[in-house]
């Protein structure tokens, strides 16, 4: 089994992807050094709080974080943010910070991914393979979301 296949399998394993949520809720998110964040969002139909841990793609400013919807526009968190852009983010030592989500344009996404590819070539190759294996689309086709955190 290739690394991409293993990564894709893990991304489809509920207990694995939900495991870090407990660490964030215990205010231990700083252990991930800003590479992961906890996104608290509202269900678009239920209106109930939902939680997902995601990897950051870029951190242009301390108040701005870019994340990728590796499962494309079908990802529940992505669909929820499209319906209700107000959310909360826990990242590093910051917890439950109010934030607003905005889907990046294709041109903005291309620029962010080019910078990610340049800064992290090995991670880009691995992540690209995992996303393609899991979804059938390349990393350049997944939607990127910018989260603007309140100060």
Helical content band: 25-40%
In terms of structural class, how would the helical and strand content be classed? alpha+beta
Q: In sequence order, what are the helices and strands, one letter per element?
A: HHEEEHEEHHE
Strand content: 25-35%
Indicate the mean pLDDT.
87
Q: Report the C-alpha radius of gyration, rounded.
A: 15 Å
Task: Characterize the biggest β-sheet.
Answer: 6 strands, antiparallel, barrel
Q: Tell me, briefly, the overall form.
A: globular
**Strand order in the sheet with the most strands:** 1-2-3-6-5-4
What is the oligomeric state here? single chain
What's the N-to-C terminus distance?
44 Å
Residue windows where pLDDT falls under 50 for at least 5 positions: none
- How many H/I helical runs? 5
Give the total of beta strands: 6
How does this structure look, described?
The protein has 151 residues and is α+β, with helices and mostly antiparallel strands. Helix content is 38%, strand content 31%. It has 5 helices and 6 strands, in the order ααβββαββααβ. It has helices at 3-11, 14-25, 76-83, 106-119, 121-135; strands at 36-42, 49-61, 64-68, 86-91, 94-103, 144-149. It has a 6-stranded antiparallel barrel with strand order 1-2-3-6-5-4. Helix 1 (3-11) crosses helix 5 (121-135) and helix 4 crosses helix 5. The model has no long low-confidence stretch (mean pLDDT 87).
């Amino acid at each position: 089994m290739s690394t991409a296949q293993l990564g894709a399998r893990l991304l489809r394993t509920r207990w694995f992807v939900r495991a870090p949520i407990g660490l964030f809720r215990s205010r231990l998110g700083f252990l991930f050094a800003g590479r992961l964040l906890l996104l608290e969002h509202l269900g678009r139909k239920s209106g109930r709080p939902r939680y997902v841990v995601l990897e950051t793609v870029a951190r242009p400013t301390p108040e701005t974080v870019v994340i990728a919807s590796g499962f494309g526009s079908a990802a529940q968190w992505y669909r929820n943010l499209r319906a209700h852009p107000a959310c909360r983010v826990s990242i590093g030592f910051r917890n439950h910070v109010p934030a607003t989500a905005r889907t990046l344009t294709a041109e903005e996404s291309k620029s962010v991914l080019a910078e990610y590819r340049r800064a992290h070539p090995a991670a880009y190759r691995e992540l690209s393979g995992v996303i393609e294996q899991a979804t059938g689309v390349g990393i350049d086709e997944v939607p990127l979301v910018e989260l603007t955190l309140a100060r």
